[in-house]
């Protein structure tokens, strides 16, 4: 039984590694990296959800993405250096800085989003609805189980 369990463990971990690598391969390597794309996406979504606001602050983005302000600041600065977002200081409080997507940033966001949506459509078409539903349920179950085990162990 120990050998069989080890084989299962190796197969499980190998499959999880393959899934992670496959996901990472979907990142838009030739334009911006995945973490910068998701920061750009959060800025776009924040503005869509808050049209009355100038833009998003680092604090807004950190809260929205459940990341630290330092990691958000690093990504937003990279986006700014690429000309995809710009900083706008608050007129009443110079300490408050808003980030706004530039026209070029929006073009890149829309291009990457379209490419990803086309990829997902092709994936669903090739695998079929039933296979997608089963795979999704298996992944959700795996994630729930991992979280449960982590919570039981106090991690």
Which stretches of 5+ consecutive residues score pLDDT under 50?
Answer: none
User: Count the helices. How many?
Assistant: 6
The main sheet orders its strands as 1-2
Overall mean confidence score, pLDDT: 89
Proportion in β-strands: 5-15%
* Helix-strand topology string: HHHHEEHH
Molecular structure report:
With 155 residues, this protein is mainly alpha-helical. It contains 6 helices and 2 strands; from the N terminus they run H-H-H-H-E-E-H-H. The chain has a two-stranded antiparallel sheet. The two termini are 28 Å apart. 14% of the residues are buried.
Name some characteristics of this structure.
6 helices; mainly alpha; 155 residues
Secondary structure elements and pairings:
Layout (H helix, E strand, L loop, with lengths): L1 H24 L8 H16 L8 H8 L3 H13 L3 E5 L7 E5 L1 H25 L1 H24 L3
Helix pairs in contact: 2-3, 2-4, 2-5, 3-4
């Amino acid at each position: 039984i120990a050998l069989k369990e080890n084989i299962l463990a190796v197969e499980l971990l190998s499959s999880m590694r393959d899934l992670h690598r496959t996901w990472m391969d979907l990142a838009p390597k030739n334009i911006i990296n995945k973490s910068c794309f998701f920061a750009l996406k959060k800025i776009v979504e924040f503005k869509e959800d808050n049209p009355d606001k100038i833009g998003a602050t680092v604090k807004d983005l950190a809260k929205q993405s459940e990341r630290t302000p330092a990691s958000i600041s690093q990504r937003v600065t990279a986006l700014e250096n690429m000309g995809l977002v710009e900083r706008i200081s608050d007129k009443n409080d110079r300490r408050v800085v808003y980030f706004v997507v530039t026209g070029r940033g929006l073009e890149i966001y829309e291009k990457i989003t379209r490419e990803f949506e086309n990829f997902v459509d092709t994936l669903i078409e090739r695998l079929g609805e039933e296979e997608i539903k089963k795979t999704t349920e298996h992944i959700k179950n795996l994630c729930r189980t991992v979280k449960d085990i982590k919570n039981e162990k106090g991690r």
